[in-house]
Amino acid sequence: MSTSGRVVKRILIGRAMRSDRLSETLLPKKLALPVFASDALSSVAYAPDEILLTLGMAGGALAVTQSWKIGLAVAFVMVIVVMSYRQNVHAYPSGGGDYEVASVNLGPKAGLTVASALLVDYVLTVAVSVSSGVQNAATALPFLRGHEAITAVVIVALLTAMNLRGVRESGSAFAVPTYLFMGAVIGMAGVGFFRSAMGNLPLAESANLTLAPESGYETLGGFAMAFLLLRAFSSGCAALTGVEAISNGVPAFQKPKSRNAATTLLLMGTIAVTMLLSMIVLARLTHVHFAEDPATQLLRDGAPVGDSYIQHTVMGQVAQAVFDGFTPGVVLVSVVTGLILFLAANTAFNGFPVLGSILAKDGYLPRQLHTRGNRLAFSNGIIILAAAAAGLIVLYNAEVTKLIQLYIVGVFVSFTLSQLGMIRHWNRLLAVEKDPAARGRMGRSRIINGIGAAMSGTVLLVVLATKFIHGAGYAIAAMAVLFVLMLGIRRHYDRVRDELAVHEGDTKAQLLPSRVHAIVLVSKIHKPTLRALAYARATRPQVLEALTVNVEPEETKALQAEWDRRDIPIPLKALDSPYREITRPVVDYVKSIRSGNPRDLVVVYIPQYVLGHWWEQVLHNQSALRLRARLLFTPGVMVSSVPWQLEGSDQARERLDENRPMAGDVRRGS
Amino acid sequence: MSTSGRVVKRILIGRAMRSDRLSETLLPKKLALPVFASDALSSVAYAPDEILLTLGMAGGALAVTQSWKIGLAVAFVMVIVVMSYRQNVHAYPSGGGDYEVASVNLGPKAGLTVASALLVDYVLTVAVSVSSGVQNAATALPFLRGHEAITAVVIVALLTAMNLRGVRESGSAFAVPTYLFMGAVIGMAGVGFFRSAMGNLPLAESANLTLAPESGYETLGGFAMAFLLLRAFSSGCAALTGVEAISNGVPAFQKPKSRNAATTLLLMGTIAVTMLLSMIVLARLTHVHFAEDPATQLLRDGAPVGDSYIQHTVMGQVAQAVFDGFTPGVVLVSVVTGLILFLAANTAFNGFPVLGSILAKDGYLPRQLHTRGNRLAFSNGIIILAAAAAGLIVLYNAEVTKLIQLYIVGVFVSFTLSQLGMIRHWNRLLAVEKDPAARGRMGRSRIINGIGAAMSGTVLLVVLATKFIHGAGYAIAAMAVLFVLMLGIRRHYDRVRDELAVHEGDTKAQLLPSRVHAIVLVSKIHKPTLRALAYARATRPQVLEALTVNVEPEETKALQAEWDRRDIPIPLKALDSPYREITRPVVDYVKSIRSGNPRDLVVVYIPQYVLGHWWEQVLHNQSALRLRARLLFTPGVMVSSVPWQLEGSDQARERLDENRPMAGDVRRGS
Questions:
Q1: Is the pTM of this model over 0.80?
Q2: Name one GO cellular component term (chains A, B) (predicted).
Q3: CATH classification of A26-432+446-493 is 1.20.1740.10, yes or no?
């Protein structure tokens, strides 16, 4: 690579890092919280909006009277799920995530279902978080409006580059924005409640508008009304995504790992619930009106506000009101909200390749995704995730409200199967445990996981019922496709393993060839050829000959003349090729040797030169590569590549040796 | 491949064909004419339109008074160029195209310039011909209107599939549509002139409209007027593309090759000129009004006809008039016009890969494009051509008028350099020729080529002057990029050749290694491993050991246990890998062997299994491939792949063996 090329690469992908710098200290709770919580906490940036706009479809009154109830329901689910996962953390201190819990206790297909669900949800985490982040940013940066999708795609690309670069995550990189966000939101809530108590809380910018129902929602019957409430609840449950992260990351905690992880989980749940409820209450206190379709639903003096009206996020409107237009406060809330959302998206960039590597280890994904110490595996995962998320963003034009319809279903599939698995786990342990105290603990845990399973299952059904036609169906379809694909890959691996297995008495593979017939392929006399001849001679085969294909008679004649002139002590045989092919005459010749002496081993030596750049490589050795590929299909043949390293190849070697930290290192405690 | 997969592939790409069916008889003149003329003749379908609409920019009067003069000027150039190329054909009976003539006589850079120009023009031939064909088809098939670009791309895709399939061209496949087209156009001209003489030639559908000048062209000064005439002339010169085809194809002619080729060239020129002039005259006789922007320029009773007016091609309007609305006649003209245009596009699919192969032979393009008998080479050429043409079609929305601004400049670069080369050619011969009769012939040829060079050069300047800002500039830029790229590739090849050359006294490459140290890589004990061990033992190296990388300690322990249980008579060494890498420990170990005994040869045996599908292949051997790639950069190492053929690999072998006729076979006389 040229110097300028290396500089560009260094800027984009980063300086190579020695692998012994990879090791990392374990996380204390105060760092573990921000490392694992950004996904769960960030949803407070969009969950209230989704609850309000869904309720608002039936007009302003419903949002006022019901939003806090929905918030409480979500908080209730959150408490149950957190309690349940505290059991997981204690039972699987190895960091067995939902995939492991479901696989071990419910069987591989349940595990694979969880895996499919989580893979889909990782993609949606990126799409939703980045889209919401851009929407928030557009509140402060008006020039982004109308370009949300492209901005979101650019941010996904930046996150991708950052993760490909092997960014060295550190607890503090997470801590600063996460604590700032918690501080900003809880501080804002404190100021808001105080001002409200004092009676001087200003109203939101949309307070003086009225919210008209969407057409078709003007008068809702009891059933339709219940359905709408459930839909709002489903959207609010987005606050629960990310709760499972800690259960995957127990090994990254300081000792006592399980206890610290359980404590952190409780802390996270408490903070998330507090923030969500605060936002909902603040939105009510400041009279925020938030609509799915603001141009037609929001009325000023009875007339729709029209397309020129810009509906800021709930977070933005509340900040504007609480801080009474005090710009630094509003900007701080807006900036940290954007940061935490991108951090949340980044957690998916960590989780996706790690899950992929676990699945690859179990044979459900291509095995090369497993190999640790192989950047390529993680890079592929990162690129697949980014491409899928960018595709969704473009498809849904970065509209959070639309994307959120696909979201959560995966998380709740995973929650439900994990909790069901935990019940089985306790059943198994209870079957053998004699100690009454331990039995008591296990029984209590089983009850908690049972409640968790029932609750998660119910929410899953609610999500499916209310969102299936709005998008959750696509998420289910994507999971099904992944499930079938991964099952097919596993079956393929199993089939190959069976075919390769050595059975007793099956000696075909161990048969020692009687003689070695070596063939050196020669196209012209240059250094690689001479080296190949020398190497072939060094192995002292019974038969050794050089072989060339007569494509251009004059060239062959010149080659033969030079061969004689140089007194090369190996016979040169020229194969005729009426159709100017190279591969076929060689393969036919090799076959003819084998058919004459079927127990002979034919070793074909192919001189090959190695260059510095992949694009240089493209210009060379193509006939050799094709011939090599073809000979691999011919039984009884071994193909030896004799490399000649050209100048510049050492740079390519250096590139191959590069080693950098990988996404997810911190949270795996490696 | 599954049975259904094979059926689908057979339908799309065609049945495999034995290579001995490739041979083809040489072409008599009556078949050579249609084989080589479709490109040149087809331009009569769009050249008159472009002349008329360019003149029409200054209003209807100019088109009426000047179009026949432009036609005559084009015809004059055609005569000169045809006369000149008759000299080429006699001087280079080997089928030396413009590239060879320029390279031999003016040097490699001139040749490369011609090559760049021709490559660009091949792309434009496809784009222009297909777009024009679709425009013609839209006359008859109204549902195509508004979907021209996508239809054109689909047709390019069909042509691509046809050529990838290795369609067996035959003279008659060209003959029928070409002769039909000639018959239809000349027959139509005959009927038209006869009816005109009889005084009962109907008028065209646009005869009762008036043609208003475009804004800015209402009153043109003398200079602007001359410029507009030259621009119309430039567009008309599209009729000359394809004239050079015969000079490339002399070897495909029956004997006496040169004479037959020269006669065919003359015939083609005569027919092309006749058809072009006939169309221009017929357009005038039937009062065709043809505008660049019909909606605003064409006036009915003084008012613009508007967007609803559909402007049919000149060919379509003339046919409608001459045949008096007799539908079969109109449809015949429209269908054969479409056919000849697609045939013209197809000639580029033949020419592009052939030129690519010649350039590859000379080291200007990747060498693998050269190898005859290698479908891949031609397939790559076909795909590159199709992609570039489709890109242009989409970019220019299949509008012939826009595309034609880029066209021709390449052809005239090629004409000019070729004719300049011919002058040099005669100069060289005249310097040694003594026979006065021969000298006289050569002198006459030189004069003709001199006139040809002057004429082509002048037209080139006119084309550049009138079209540079309208698009020809892009064509020039594309040529420049290709030129630099090809020069770079050539330099790279030269550098590598010098580096690989064996100099006297340079014995490093011939050094016989003192000992062979064989290493068999083992990941688990299965058939490929056992075979690799057997093969390695058969070569009787001085040192032989099996090597595994300890990534998972339990797995390594199990492997060692099975190794002992099976009593394998080769020591198994386990390398530690703290970072769970595979490549690095192996490479380091190999290096340590080499540094201890620098004259040793290390042979690394990699067991590898071969599967039937590329996607199966992706699931396997990736660590082995990466390791192999890395070891090739390590000096003193040879990498031997020991293949184990799995079930299904025979199907993949069959696919590799497929052999079909290739694009351009007929016109290369092979």
A1: no
A2: membrane
A3: yes
